[in-house]
Each structure stands twice: as structure tokens, then as C-alpha cells.
Fold this sequence. Notes:
The protein is α/β, with parallel strands linked by helices and 309 residues long. It has helices at 4-18, 32-42, 48-68, 85-92, 104-117, 159-173, 189-196, 202-217, 277-286; strands spanning 73-77, 96-101, 126-127, 145-149, 178-184, 227-234, 239-246, 250-254, 257-261, 266-273, 290-296, 302-308. The protein has two domains: 7-25 and 210-273, no CATH class; 48-187 and 276-308, Vaccinia Virus protein VP39 (Rossmann fold), CATH 3.40.50.150. Helices cover 38% and strands 24% of the residues. β11 and β12 form a beta hairpin. α2 (32-42) runs antiparallel to α8 and α3 packs parallel to α4. It is globular. The site of N,N-dimethyl-L-histidine (AVI) has 11 residues, from β10.
Amino acid sequence: MLAILDQAFAADVLAGLKAPIPAIPARWFYDKRGSELFDDITRLPSYYPSRTETAVLEAIMPEVAALAGPGRAVVEWGAGSLTKTPILLEAIDPAVYVPIDISGTYLRQSARDLRDKLPWLDIIPVEADFARHVELPGAIAALPKLGFFPGSTIGNFVPGSATDLLRSFRAELGTGALLLIGMDRVKPVERLVAAYDDPEGVTAAFNLNLLERINRELDGTVRLADWRHEARWNDILSRIEMHLVSVRDTSFEVLGDRFAFRAGQSIHTENSHKYGPRGARVQLLTGGWTPLKEWTDPAGDFAVMLARA
Length: 309
Ligand code: AVI
């Protein structure tokens, strides 16, 4: 009998492989190996978003602290990275920090690491899938709130789903809450593709790990050598797409179902939308958040936006 999470994984994989345009949701990248590979990605020279956003956050914190004021409950969707989250928490003097993550193990580990780093901070971890409505702890009900959603994770959602997600953040935090969100900017195609197809091959390993995970967890018989990683810029939809492309005619089984792919056919595994200044504001507004202020690095590669519900 498969565990509950495995059943959801199985359902998404089987439905995704049977679809006319085969696709598997990007959230399944993040098993233990996938999360480690993602950490490696954030340190790659060609993957500019993490270090650029960190530099922007460091530069703007005095201003954010002045705008937000002390005593807020900081709610972060996705367990915080120890590089970015402390920059915010050390600057704004919050009353409590609420990290939300689907993986209890990962959540507890990051809460422990953060307690070591910021022992004065009250941390209330919440184990939940932030893509669904999350019930926040009653203890923070009366506090003013600041939502934190860095990393341009919003870009992994197609615009309609990003709108739904932002609206659910608004419903969780309530009117008057603030949101600090990272949104990656459109830039020359070569740089975008290099960020998602690094010469070191880490992003390729991250993408291919999805097939390994299918083999490990869903009795898959996928031959890894029959697949390669591809990052494509989709100019009309303003997004980088990651695909797994079959290099030859191939077939495999997943949980007893057989799938055949022709050479050159692909499985679409991720979208990473990039925003112009106007598109970023429109996305926030349609999600129910009024943009108050935005900052970028000097080159304009990555934006951090502050908005009010
Ligand atoms: C988590 N997310 C914002 C990353 C991105 O840039 O879309 C995931 C990623 N995929 C490949 N590289 C990084």
C-alpha cells in the first residue's frame, strides 16, 4: 500500500504521462535528493536568482523594517532558507515566525537550524501544503502580519494559479497585511537558458532525478540514458520551460502501466515565469495585493516587491 503522498505522486505521474502533452508538476522534484540538488543549483555561477535576491534583500532591509515596523508575525510559505530568511528576521524585529512547509522533516530541521541562529525568536512551524489554504496558528491571530515568499517561487505557477495562490495568501493573512515577494525579471534569453542549463550539469541532474524518483518510488523502469534535460525559453508565455526529452524511441512501465515515447518527444516538468515591471504589478494586483514599493539589483535582474492586502 502506497503512503498518502506517494498516492498523490502516482496519480500526478500517471495522469501526466497519459496527457496529450505529457507533463509532471514541478513540486515532485523535491524529494531528499531533489532538495539537495536544488540547494546546489542556488550556488551555481549561472543561477543568478538566489545570490541576486539575497543582495537585494540585504540592501533594502532598513527600508523594509521602517515600512513594516516591529512586532509582526512573519509567515513564510516554504521553509525558509538560512541565507535569506535571517536577513529579514534580524532586521524587522518580529513577534513570531511561522514557516509553512509540506515536508515535516525538512520543516523541523530548518526550524532547529534557525533556533540555533536566532535563539530569541519565537518559531511556530506549520506542516501544510501552501498550494492549498493553510490554517494559521490562533496565537498569531491578533498580530499584524508580513508574508514572505522569496525565490520567485511564484514564477513556478502559471498566471491563473499564481493569482489563486496570492488570493489564498491574502485570505490567510487578512486585510492590511504586507507581502514581501521575490519576482525574477525578463532578461536576455542566453542568460535565462544558462541559468536553467548550467555547464556543470546540476540542473540536468535535478530534472533527471524526477525519472529516478519514479523508478525508486513507483516501480518505474525508465532508462535514464534514453532521456536528456532541456531548458527552453517560451517568449509568448514569458517563461523558461524545463523538459525531459527522449533521445531515442523508448518505452517504460510505471506501476504496471506502459508508456511509449518517440525520439524527440518530451515530458514538460517545470515552468519558471519571468516578469517585466508591469507584468509583476499586474500579477500582484490580480492576486489581491496592492504594490507599495519595488526594488531590484543595479542591473535590474531580480525584483523584490512589497505589497499590501
Ligand atoms: C524554486 N524555483 C523558484 C526555481 C526556479 O528558478 O524556477 C526552481 C528551479 N528549477 C531549475 N532551477 C531552479
